[in-house]
Write a structure and sequence with these properties.
A hairpin with a 4-residue loop joins strand 8 and strand 9 (165-171). The protein is of the alpha/beta class. It has one domain: HUPs (Rossmann fold), CATH 3.40.50. It is globular. The protein has helices spanning 36-52, 67-74, 94-108, 128-135, 190-195, 218-221, 245-258; strands at 2-6, 9-11, 32-34, 55-61, 80-84, 113-117, 140-150, 154-160, 165-171, 174-178, 202-204. It has a 9-stranded mixed beta sheet with strand order 9-8-7-10-6-1-4-5-11, with helices on both faces. The longest helix is centred in the N-terminal third of the chain and has 17 residues, at 36-52.
Length: 263
């Protein structure tokens, strides 16, 4: 069995500058980390690996410095690493990001199971996993809150819906996106860090993919463009209320009504 986990390097701080021309984040020189939601996807794949003996591959897309998150995945027990890196991939919207990842999966697969985190902390769209499943023509399901079993030809999962939970059986090959808390992510292993220091990573650029038309990638291929992006303005005001509890409660109610929080 072969499992692919999609991971991403995201800014490790909220103090990130915006490129006013492209509407994208300026990532150079910004502290980075693995997307927190991807830790749950990794742990899900590694739990299935422990049960089935599967081979787990971690794949990411980004500039050369994203190698660090693949190295981090090795320290958790991942077997192989793939990096999609090319200037042509830069500025991709969700559709082109999912297309590029799907092309990477086609090139390095086939895989029985693809696992993604629910979303990334820099984009927060929660769309890449499902769109990747569509590009690959795979059965896919989002919001998986538990893995209930892996049989020979399918995985059994529980899906968190807005008003209920649904048990589903998805045939391989398939793609799932998992919820935060599906498992407790493990910590990196120093033993694995030393053991995987020289492990080779597969690097793929535009020319390595089956579809190498630059118009299908990055900012050039993205049908959606960011019109404006900016950090939210912070308005902080402190009000001290005097009097006994009844007086302060009455004054607080008046303030909330004045500001139209209460009617």
């Amino acid at each position: 069995m072969k499992i692919l986990v999609c991971i991403k390097q995201v800014p490790g701080t909220t103090q990130v500058e915006i490129d006013e021309t492209t509407g994208t984040l300026k990532r150079d020189g910004v502290p980075a980390k693995m997307n927190p939601f991807d830790l749950y996807a990794l742990e899900t794949a590694l739990r299935i690996k422990a049960e089935t003996g599967a081979e787990v591959t971690a794949m990411t897309m980004g500039p050369p410095q994203c190698e660090s998150v693949v190295r981090e995945a090795f320290t958790m027990g991942v077997d192989r690493g793939v990096i999609l890196s090319d200037r042509a991939f830069g500025g991709a919207d969700v559709l082109m990001t999912s297309f590029t990842l799907a092309q990477g999966a086609k090139k390095t697969g086939p895989y029985d199971l693809i696992v993604c985190g629910r979303q990334t902390t820099d984009g927060d769209t929660a769309q890449v996993g499902a769109e990747m499943g569509e590009w690959l023509a795979l059965p896919h399901v989002a919001n998986v809150k538990s893995i209930d079993g892996v049989c020979g030809d399918a995985v059994k999962v529980t899906v968190d819906q807005p008003d209920c939970e649904v048990a589903e059986k998805i045939p391989f090959p398939c793609l799932i996106t998992v919820e935060k808390g599906i498992f407790e992510p493990r910590l990196p292993s120093y033993r694995l860090l030393k053991a995987t220091e020289g492990r080779e990573i597969q690097w793929l650029s535009l020319k390595d993919l089956d579809d190498h038309d630059p118009k299908h990638y990055g900012l050039n291929g993205s049908p959606t463009q960011v019109k404006r992006i900016f950090p939210p303005e912070a308005h902080v005001e402190h009000i001290a209320l005097d009097g006994d509890d009844i007086e302060k409660a009455a004054r607080l109610a008046d303030l909330l009504e004045e500001r139209k929080f209460l009617r």
